[in-house]
């Protein structure tokens, strides 16, 4: 299954592109689910809290298990997780539209989330290997696939469902089958990644983990606030434009696509900027600038709402791949575990935030909830400022 080779010094663009495409398919499912919520809410007669719980169940399933999968991949490279994870994520999302009840919807999104959990730790671990020495740049190539999946997901869900009804979700299985086939019938990505561990510093493993505890805790707290912001906007913008403003669902889908497509560009831009100017500087700039941009979005309408939301999506996600590089540098012996913790918290806390914000929306309304979400990046900024990390490369 594997061909042992030495750790590359330069970025392997071919391998990272394939990994990024698998990442795209896995995260299409995460992005599509919030876009499906208004239709599921109407079809099944759900409250906002129940709709938010769908995201919570999906994200908890894709997050709670991720550190365990990360731990397993640190002990033994499990490359077959990559085709399996992307296929399962797509397959069970395709079945959501066929579920006749709320409970079965939760079951389908739970198994789709499991596929996401299988793919991510091994995907980020192998991407770390193929990134060579320019970690932030290489990881941004892998990360851009996931953010592109988030961007395409709501748009695809809206198009499929408005044209074919809820059972139009069946079409999501197609990219899952295609990418699983590409993984299975190509060999250039099948490498022995144990070289990652060989580059880690020597010394007692327990002492290394103890030293990583404080900076890693601050980093995870920062990611939690960023995830609440990102998932919160992704979840409640459709409700605001469809249910509150009584607008065209395609307007909401286009707005979400613009927000998430800007995040794709932000992922791609953020990595090289971080390698040039410093990882922590880019993270602080990203989080500090996002809050006023979200406020401008809420105060605007028409084309200006698109402009401010695009800029917010672009800059907020500057920190995405950079925070992964930072976390993996804190735990060089446990790159898979670090990846699982970071992504597990991103999905899990993001889903928990969606459920809690759903309660706020039931109590105070969707517009007030969006205002709360707009100020969350400030909490992430404060925690990021405390992380002991070199300001320069």
Provide a quick synopsis of the model.
The protein has 393 residues and is mainly α. The chain has helices at residues 13-44, 48-64, 66-75, 81-94, 102-130, 135-164, 173-185, 195-198, 205-244, 249-277, 279-298, 303-316, 319-330, 335-364, 366-374, 376-386.
Secondary structure elements and pairings:
Blueprint (H helix, E strand, L loop, with lengths): L12 H32 L3 H17 L1 H10 L5 H14 L7 H29 L4 H30 L8 H13 L9 H4 L6 H40 L4 H29 L1 H20 L4 H14 L2 H12 L4 H30 L1 H9 L1 H11 L7
Helix pairs in contact: 1-2, 1-4, 1-5, 1-6, 1-7, 1-9, 2-5, 2-14, 3-5, 3-14, 4-5, 4-7, 5-6, 5-14, 6-10, 6-13, 9-10, 9-13, 9-14, 9-15, 9-16, 10-11, 10-12, 10-13, 11-12, 11-13, 11-16, 13-14, 14-15
What are the salient characteristics of this protein?
mainly alpha, about 400 residues, disordered N terminus, Growth Hormone, Chain: A
Structure explained in plain terms:
- The chain has 393 residues and is mainly alpha-helical.
- The protein has one domain (13-386): Growth Hormone, Chain: A, CATH 1.20.1250.20.
- The chain has helices at residues 13-44, 48-64, 66-75, 81-94, 102-130, 135-164, 173-185, 195-198, 205-244, 249-277, 279-298, 303-316, 319-330, 335-364, 366-374, 376-386.
- Helix 2 (48-64) runs parallel beside helix 5.
- The longest helix is centred in the middle third of the chain and has 40 residues, at 205-244.
């Amino acid at each position: 299954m594997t061909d042992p080779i030495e750790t590359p010094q330069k970025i392997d663009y071919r391998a990272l592109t394939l990994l990024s495409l698998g990442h795209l398919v896995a995260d299409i499912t995460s992005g599509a689910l919030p876009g499906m919520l208004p239709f599921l809410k109407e079809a099944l007669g759900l409250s906002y809290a129940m709709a938010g719980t769908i995201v919570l169940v999906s994200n908890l399933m894709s997050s709670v298990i991720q550190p365990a999968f990360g731990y397993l991949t640190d002990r033994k490279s499990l490359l077959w997780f990559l085709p399996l994870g992307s296929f399962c994520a797509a397959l069970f999302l395709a079945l959501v539209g066929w579920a006749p009840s709320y409970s079965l919807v939760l079951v389908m999104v739970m198994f789709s989330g499991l596929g996401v959990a299988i793919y991510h730790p091994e995907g980020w671990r192998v991407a770390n290997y193929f990134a060579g020495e320019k970690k932030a740049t290489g990881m941004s190539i892998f990360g851009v696939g996931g953010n592109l999946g988030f961007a395409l997901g709501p748009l695809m869900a809206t198009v499929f469902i408005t044209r074919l009804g809820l059972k139009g979700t069946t079409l999501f299985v197609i990219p899952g089958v295609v990418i699983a086939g590409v993984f299975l019938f190509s060999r250039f990505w099948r490498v022995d990644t144990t070289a990652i561990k060989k580059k880690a510093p020597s010394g007692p493993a327990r002492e290394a983990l103890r030293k990583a505890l404080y900076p890693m805790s601050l980093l995870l707290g920062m990611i939690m606030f960023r995830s609440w912001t990102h998932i919160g906007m992704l979840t409640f913008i459709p409700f605001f434009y469809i249910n509150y403003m009584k607008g065209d669902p395609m307007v909401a889908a286009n707005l979400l696509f613009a927000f998430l497509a800007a995040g794709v560009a932000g992922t791609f831009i953020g990595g090289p900027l971080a390698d040039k100017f410093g990882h922590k500087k880019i993270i602080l700039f990203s989080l500090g600038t996002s809050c006023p941009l979200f406020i401008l979005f809420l105060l605007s309408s028409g084309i200006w709402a698109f402009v401010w939301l695009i800029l917010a999506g672009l800059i907020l996600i500057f920190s995405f791949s950079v925070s992964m590089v930072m976390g993996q540098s804190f735990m060089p012996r446990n790159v898979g575990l670090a990846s699982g913790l970071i992504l597990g918290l991103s999905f899990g806390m993001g889903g928990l935030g969606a459920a809690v914000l759903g309660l706020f929306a039931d109590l105070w309304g969707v517009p007030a909830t969006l205002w709360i979400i707009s100020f969350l990046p400030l909490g992430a900024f404060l925690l990021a400022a405390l992380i002991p990390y070199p300001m320069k490369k």
